[in-house]
Design a protein that fits this description.
Blueprint (H helix, E strand, L loop, with lengths): L2 E6 L2 E8 L8 E5 L12 H11 L4 E5 L15 H17 L6 E6 L1 H12 L3 E7 L17 E7 L7 H12 L6 E6 L10 H19 L1
Parallel strand pairs: 3-4, 3-5, 5-6, 6-7, 7-8
Antiparallel strand pairs: 1-2, 2-4
GO molecular function: hydrolase activity
Keywords: Hydrolase
Pfam family, one: Peptidase_S15
Length: 215
């Protein structure tokens, strides 16, 4: 799990990178939760997603947004963090020029950033959004949502009420040609305390289903 440092818009960004064995392997990028609420690339959900993709033959990158860990800069309310994510994807693509596909996964704040990146980068063909904060941030940019993906959240989420996520999913489902798979984890709060195992079973099950259709 080599540590990597690459250049972002506000200075260096610190990451961890797992290279795939195959040259044309797809890329996956994992985005962490809110920097001002102890969100880092070492968050357990981010870490588990990183390995879920790595075990399925992806080249995987997770990194700290500006101002977190050894990444330079300071919190920028999402605007700068989106630029950080774009720079991270640029870096991953530069060292994987033959990559045949790209996925983005994010948790909470990271899910919001990831879905914005999805709109800007047509090469992103799949996404995993864990507890997207549909009540806290504007998701209206998803018009139309360009890729199929998974939205997973808990039915006991007090930070992002399930009804707000349902509203987002219903809006996305009206678009032709994409499939939004919504999964609700019973008894899970926003942080999936005590529910990490069913969360990851949902994530890996979805990934395996999508990848089976590719091969």
């Amino acid at each position: 799990m080599p540590e990597v440092i690459f250049t972002g818009p506000a200075g260096r960004l610190e990451g961890r990178y797992h290279p795939a064995k195959q040259k044309n392997a797809p890329i996956a990028m994992i985005l962490h939760p809110h920097p001002q609420f102890h969100g880092t690339m070492n968050h357990q959900i981010v870490y588990q997603c990183y390995y879920a993709f790595a075990h399925r033959g992806f080249s995987v990158l997770r990194f700290n947004f500006r101002g977190v860990g050894r990444s330079q800069g300071s919190f920028d309310h999402g605007t700068g963090e989106l630029s950080d994510a774009a720079s991270a994807l640029d870096w991953a693509q530069a060292i994987n020029p033959e990559a045949r596909a790209c996925w983005v996964a994010g948790f909470s704040f990271g899910a919001w950033i990831g879905m914005q990146l999805l709109m800007r980068r047509p090469e992103v063909e799949g996404f995993i959004s864990i507890a997207p904060p549909a009540n806290l941030y504007d998701f209206s940019f998803l018009a139309p949502c360009p890729s199929s993906g998974l939205i997973v959240h808990g039915d006991k989420d007090a930070v992002v009420p399930p009804k707000d996520v349902n509203t987002l999913v219903e809006k996305l489902k009206t678009q032709k040609g994409i499939v939004i798979d919504q999964q609700i984890i019973p008894g899970a709060n926003h942080f999936f305390d005590g529910k990490l195992e069913p969360l990851m079973e949902t994530v890996t099950g979805y990934l395996d289903m999508r990848l089976a259709n590719v091969r």
